[in-house]
Amino acid sequence: MKKAFYFFAVLLLLSCHHASQKGHTVSVRIDPDEAENSIAADEWLDTAGCALIPLADTEKPITNATRLKTHRDKIYILDEETHCLHVFHADGTLDFSIDRRGKAGNEYLWLSDFHATGKRLYLLDHIGQKILECDTLGRFIRKRDIDGYYANGIFATDEALFLVNEGSTPSRRNTIT
Prior knowledge:
Elements: H1 2-19, H2 32-35, E1 65-71, E2 74-79, E3 84-89, E4 94-98, E5 111-116, E6 121-125, E7 130-134, E8 140-145, E9 153-156, E10 161-164, E11 175-176
Antiparallel strand pairs: 1-2, 2-3, 3-4, 5-6, 6-7, 7-8, 9-10, 10-11
């Protein structure tokens, strides 16, 4: 009986010690070829009223999606690893991808955010201090310099662009017309 008590006491202490560590990260790698027909989301997520949409393949695979936004019937995914913006139709088929890394006027150094409206797609290049304005098919229209403004996010309406700092709300002070 004493041995069982000590065993559980040591187990409890080790469990508490392990749980109190800060910054402990667990990484899980999934081989998509092996996982493709074996993900049972309903076992770990309440999917009532939801549907899983398999996304089509892209030229550069999505490896580190940092932003996912929807607008009308499109799904926009920003991949920080490849610096690409992928745009999908609602059924998961690929519409287009934007991969314009470089220093030219129609290219970006670091695609940090984007925003889609009914008429335009705006890409924020935080490092290059510019906004690339594209049409809804991803074709470049013009660039807007934002030297002197700090922004790590962007929001747009059909009338104005708003530069956003993390943790703040859009203000007219950081509005570009």
